[in-house]
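Postdoc handover notes: sequence design on the structure in folder B. Input tokens:
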């Protein structure tokens, strides 16, 4: 297995994963989406709410606010020995929110949530929650815990996670008359004409759509489109709850533990 980072920024990464099977690539993708734990609001206690929004809708909105996650400082509720429905300091983070509109209509934002832990808080302060008209008030307590995307989408650490096969684009120079139709119809600017030759300029951009082959006036086309089913290009974008490198690393770690867990379960069944 080989990993090569193509590009990365604050919230996204693009890398190639080679010498693996399609099943492994898909397992890694699914682990990043559904297995990596993050923090999200699960329980909301509404103390006062005379806004136009029902308590249930308000709680749903709060749950979808991405929170910065400290997976090392907390344990999941299944692993915690507390019996409380709202959890304890080991497995949950509490928030408070109190807002009131006196004279004018105001908007309550995610930044109005006050966390007991400065390391677990909304990643963006300007996510609108509800509008309060003059005289309306909102007061509540909210509790966040670790969870997985397999349980609910609000615990997914990624907003985008996909991969594609490594494309292989070849041009038979001897048969190509350099008419330029492939350059014209290619949606990703894979080809270019330099001098009197057609060259593959951006092979990595190819989406395997084969528009270049279909629009080539020569039959059979001198262009062949293929893919390497052992090499994959991944694009992963974090919601901001965790650094994107940590998401990939944690997913790989969880994937590595699954064979050991399966082996233990099989041995238990044999006994």
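Designed sequence:
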């Amino acid at each position: 297995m080989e990993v090569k980072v193509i590009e990365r920024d604050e919230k996204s990464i693009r890398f190639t994963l080679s010498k693996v099977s399609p099943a492994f690539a898909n397992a890694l993708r699914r682990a990043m989406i559904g297995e990596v734990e993050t923090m999200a609001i699960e329980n909301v206690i509404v103390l006062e709410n005379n806004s136009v929004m029902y308590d249930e809708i308000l709680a749903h909105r709060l749950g979808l606010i991405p929170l910065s996650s400290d997976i090392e400082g907390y344990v999941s509720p299944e692993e915690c020995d507390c019996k409380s429905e709202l959890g304890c300091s080991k497995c949950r983070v509490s928030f408070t929110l109190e807002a009131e509109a006196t004279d004018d209509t105001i908007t309550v934002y995610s930044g109005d949530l006050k966390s007991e832990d400065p390391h677990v808080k909304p990643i963006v302060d300007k996510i609108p929650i509800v509008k309060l008209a003059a005289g309306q008030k909102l007061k509540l307590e909210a509790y966040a815990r670790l969870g997985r995307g397999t349980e609910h989408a609000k615990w997914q650490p990624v907003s985008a996670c996909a991969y594609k096969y490594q494309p292989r684009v070849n041009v038979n120079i001897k048969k190509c008359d350099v008419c330029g139709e492939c350059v014209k119809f290619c949606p990703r600017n894979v080809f270019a004409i330099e001098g009197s030759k057609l060259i593959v300029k951006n092979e990595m951009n190819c989406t395997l759509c084969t528009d270049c082959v279909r629009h080539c006036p020569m039959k059979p086309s001198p262009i062949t489109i293929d893919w390497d089913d052992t090499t994959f290009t991944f694009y992963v974008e974090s919601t901001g709850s965790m650094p994107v490198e940590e998401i990939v690393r944690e997913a790989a770690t969880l994937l590595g533990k699954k064979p050991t867990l399966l082996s233990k379960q099989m041995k238990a069944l044999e006994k």
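Context for whoever picks this up: The mean pLDDT is 92. Don't rerun without checking with the PI first.
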